[in-house]
Amino acid sequence: DFECGEEVELSFCKNGQWQGAAFHVRRELLQGRALFPHVLLKNCSVEFNFGQRPQPFCPRPPGYSFLQQLPLAQRVRATTGPRCKAECELLMMVGLPAAGKTTWALKHAAANPSKKYNILGTNAIMDKMRVMGLRRQRNYAGRWDVLIQQATQCLNRLIQIAARKRRNYILDQV
């Protein structure tokens, strides 16, 4: 709700049931930037209706309008990825361990947000492998070979998937 005062209110309904306000963001923090819907899920599927379907899944709250109903002149386009494989970039890091490859890759990705680089490497995978919020390296004492083997298998699968996608990648691997 951009019209509720000094703050923008983000709230949710699930199957027509009001879930209440989730966040309040001061308008000046947005600096005129648009907000985009985003959902991150694991091991489940979900379907959304932003107005592209003729009938809503459930009753809409009063005053609610679908994103699809917003006039084109008021819509903001997000950055787009490569239109074809020929436009995709693959940067392959070369260097010895601890030479600064990961540091450079992270800085380069941050300096070029429009490229939406995906960093592929066992370090990136292990960083996301957490148990109770702790990195797995700390929980795998004495079993480093098992951890690196799992991360390498994940990386190999991600490289197979990446070959079919139109995205920009940085391969950060020794």
UniProtKB/TrEMBL annotation:
Any single biological process term in GO: alternative mRNA splicing, via spliceosome
InterPro entries, per database record: B30.2/SPRY_sf, ConA-like_dom_sf, P-loop_NTPase
Protein name according to UniProt: HNRL1 protein
One cellular component (GO) term of this entry: nucleus
Domain of life: Eukaryota
Pfam families recorded: AAA_33
GO terms for MF: RNA binding
Source species of the chain: Urocolius indicus (Red-faced mousebird)
